[in-house]
Predict the 3D structure of the following.
Amino acid sequence: MKIVSFNVNGIRAAVGKGLVPALQALDADVFGFQETKATPEQVVEALAGLSGYQVHAYGAQKAGYSGTAIVSRIAPERVEYGIGMPGHDDEGRVVTAWFKEAIVVTVYTPNSGEGLKRLPYRGEWDAAFRSYASGLLKHGRPVVLCGDLNVAHQHIDIARPKANYNKTAGFTQQEIDGMDALLAAGFVDSFRSLNPDTIKYSWWSFRGGARSKNIGWRIDYALVSKAHLSKLKEAFILNEVMGSDHCPVGITW
């Protein structure tokens, strides 16, 4: 089972930049998308050229904002939208699909924002999502959490740690602690588990030629349930895939 996660930064824009043939070449069983910036109907329409896949999309109440989707060629047993907690499901940030092989969650974690204005809410979100994810572990099935978690977990995951620590959204101690707590709840960072010393990023600012200079952040993850880590065959970051300020990440299960 190959699972690929991709923050597309607007799925309609990404399709215009060649997303569909890129997805066909990736040949994943399950895709998780974040920041679709579209309604569920618009996501279905945008991916009309991707044959052989089912689309399960979730949109924000605010038009053109956030949004997630799970797209699979395996029919899920069931699909859930949101985390079932009032106040956290207005922005279309989580889709969960239940397959025989695994429970797959795609998540777009809130950004703490310019000036860290949204950092208090981010703390609330991290706790709520951790509670939701922990609940999935109780079913005994492998769980894969894939998506843009909006945090560089360790210094190795960011090109300029000193300049950004506790100053920039995505690299504050509170956000790092939130990631620590999520992992401690029963998950493993698949890429770092298999590649402990590899420096590789999944997001680059559009400013200053950051991507060409590889001044990036690793903020996109595929976390797997610790109890099922032995099933993990491969974890990857696909820097060569363009069309967004992020690149795809994923696992072979």
